[in-house]
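Severity: low
Component: inverse-folding endpoint
Summary: output formatting inconsistent between runs
Steps to reproduce: submit the following structure tokens with default settings.
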């Protein structure tokens, strides 16, 4: 097994990005339960993200969603984030909440709507120039509900055309991350339904186009770690949107539904070289806290990713290779499971203490008084929410 000090050194380098929308109100199409103290402005979302970083030490950036986080001056916003102790991360484009997008955005049959969607994507790259963000995250709600509704192949052509235009606009250090999702809101066809579709478009576009794996966007039973291994081997894994699911796109706290799956994914990341910062894999959360408190929900999620990573780093790779090469199925599985069953909480507590942090970030946040303060201070105004 790798030495504990080596594992701690590797864990020190980890960075997990939190999403601005995790701090706002959210819910389902049945009900949004508002919570007291929720941010009213993007600056307040940044303040909350800074808390997550302050207590975990590994969440130094916050992703924005445009137009949810639209401001007049993005350079000033980046300065604000820096003074709060975090930086602005990926810019998430939003071409799914306008009436014009009923039949799709970049794949809409109407060229005027396609142009409008493309202009938004290009605007997001302008924003990246101002914020210094590296990544543009693209997720399209585009698709159809009924057989025959639109031409599946033509929609792929429209998609390819829009992606190429955005790719052209990217700066040297900028990337686009193409996220896929099996279904919802479209139910019959989705224009980017799976990793293969995303991969094929990214290969055609070039090095700056990479696949984003949202862990909640697969059919039940899909072997996500296989996808991760494949994409890393092909040099096309750009990012994760971490969350967890029982049924569909549940957006629950990562590692809550299936910590074993998260471990298996993180093992493939480590095995495939994706943990090396030079590989450029972005570890982002994409979650909503509908019924639980938001800031500790994010802290817990960050810690869950850390735990799975520590276990993945603990896998005795030499012993595993030996067992695999000699065809010893049970021994290989034992090596793997041994790491998963190891309680890494003491190691993480030690690491945090060494970093000058409290060993229990959720408890420390609860004791800090921040939650009571925002509940008392954030009165009036209109609370931020998913979709607002
Ligand atoms: C779509 O379901 C998605 O995963 C995309 O990443 C969106 O931008 C995000 O959720 C918004 O919550
Ligand atoms: Mn996502």
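Observed output (run 2 of 3):
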């Amino acid at each position: 097994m790798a030495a504990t000090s080596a594992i701690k050194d590797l864990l020190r380098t980890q960075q997990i990005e939190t999403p601005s929308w995790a701090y706002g109100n959210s819910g389902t199409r049945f009900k949004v339960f508002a919570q007291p103290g929720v941010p009213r402005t993007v600056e307040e979302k940044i303040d909350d993200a800074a808390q997550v970083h302050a207590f975990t030490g590994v969440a130094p950036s916050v992703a924005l969603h445009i137009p949810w986080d639209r401001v007049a001056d993005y350079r000033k916003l980046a300065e604000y984030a820096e003074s709060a102790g975090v930086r602005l991360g990926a810019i998430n484009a939003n071409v799914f909440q306008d009436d014009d997008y009923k039949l799709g955005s970049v794949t809409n049959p109407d060229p005027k709507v396609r142009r409008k969607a493309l202009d938004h994507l290009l605007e997001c790259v302008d924003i990246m120039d101002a914020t210094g963000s590296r990544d543009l995250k693209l997720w399209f709600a585009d698709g159809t509900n009924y057989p025959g509704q639109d031409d599946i192949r033509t929609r792929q052509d429209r998609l390819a055309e829009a992606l190429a235009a955005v790719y052209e606009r990217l700066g040297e250090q900028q990337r686009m991350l193409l996220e896929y999702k099996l279904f919802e809101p479209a139910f019959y066809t989705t224009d980017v339904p799976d990793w293969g579709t995303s991969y094929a478009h990214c290969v055609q576009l070039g090095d700056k186009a990479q696949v984003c794996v949202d862990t909640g966007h697969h059919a039940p039973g899909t072997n996500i770690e296989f996808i991760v291994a494949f994409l890393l081997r092909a040099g096309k894994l750009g990012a994760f949107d971490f969350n967890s699911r029982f049924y569909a796109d549940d957006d629950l706290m990562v590692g809550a539904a299936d910590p074993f799956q998260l471990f298996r994914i993180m093992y493939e990341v480590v095995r495939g070289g994706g943990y090396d910062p030079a590989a450029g894999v972005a570890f982002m959360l994409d979650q909503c806290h509908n019924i639980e408190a938001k800031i500790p929900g994010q802290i817990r999620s960050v810690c869950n990713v850390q735990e799975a990573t520590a276990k993945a780093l603990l896998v005795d790779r030499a012993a595993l290779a030996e067992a695999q090469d000699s065809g010893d199925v049970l021994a290989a599985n034992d090596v793997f499971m041994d790491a998963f069953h190891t309680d890494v909480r003491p190691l993480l507590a030690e690491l945090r203490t060494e970093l000058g942090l409290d060993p229990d970030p959720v408890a420390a946040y609860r004791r800090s008084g921040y939650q009571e303060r925002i509940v008392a201070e954030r009165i009036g105004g209109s609370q931020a929410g998913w979709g607002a």
